[in-house]
What does this fold into?
Amino acid sequence: MDIKTTPVSVEIPTSEELKTPSSPKNKKRFLVGVIVFLGLLFVTVILLAFYKQSQKQSASSTSKVVPAFQDEIANWKTYRNEKYGFQFKYPADHTPFDTFDSASQKLNLASVTSDVVTVAENESHLFCCEPLTLSVSGLEPAGEAFSSTYATHMTIDDYPAVQFNGEGNLGSLMYKKVIIDKDGVIITVTQAGRSNFLSEIFSTFKFIETTVDTSDWHMYRNEKYGFEFRYPRGWIIAQGITGLDTAVEVYNQEYSRTGGYRALPADFMNMEIVLRSRADNISSYVDGFIKENNFFAENGEDPGLTPHFINLNSLKKSVIKGGTVYSYKGGVGKEGYIVFLNNYTLDIRVYNYSDPLLQVFLNTIVGF
It folds into this structure.
């Protein structure tokens, strides 16, 4: 920062004027002149001191962006997550982990498909104290975070995001939380305490391009209604489980639906695909859907899609191999896709959790 100062013009009394005056009137003028002189001198000294301090601060702030720490980061290792498509850097003497064993005090290194990965500033504190950590998770739903009045809106690598700030002191589990909507998949980064070290790690976080190999995916083909899609190994297809002849349910893992209540696994996703007659006007289709949803909500049969989350303004249009897709947000942990095929409309509702492979899955849907 350049600060320019203007020299102050100071009129110095002559030697004659500095002589002790012989009359009270001259003495008064003498005292006034001395006071004015000292005042101007004081102001000049203050301006010079301010200028030097500003120069010092400017030099200091410049040195902060210099090489020292940047060179250190350049030598850090890189953790890369292929499942959610992100990476960050960390020091070689630290471990990005997904679980740990308290008995053996061992951290289990996070894999390229881990749903949650964490780095601790002081790893020994994980087994005795309240550690300062930075965690990246793909399992936390956004809920109503993006419409919260407490949220600070931003973008991370061009993806919409919101940030929440906490106390970050002992007893507080959150100093900073950033929730990112990456094409329908929610990525949450949580810093548990004040730490320049963890902040520097977070500054290296970025999204990356990943390629999914679908060559070994299974094929589902519906000859009656003329559409097909591919799905990953491990996903489960349940034909007509809802009682509708035209419905297909898809799960991203095996899960028992019998035997009473069971808590859903954190990474569990179930998706219902219902065939509708061909909708030519997306606006009227969604408008009818909203009215239907509001009816259920008002009669105590809310199907889980909160009405105020479903509106035409929230629709996102994209083109896939088989047709056009309109996506919208539902309630907590829910979203929907309307796929226009040649002869039918696929109404796809995703519940509980969005698998990062969902977008790849949508691109395999084709009509014939």
Q: What stands out?
A: The chain has three domains: 15-65, 75-207, 218-367. The radius of gyration is 33 Å.
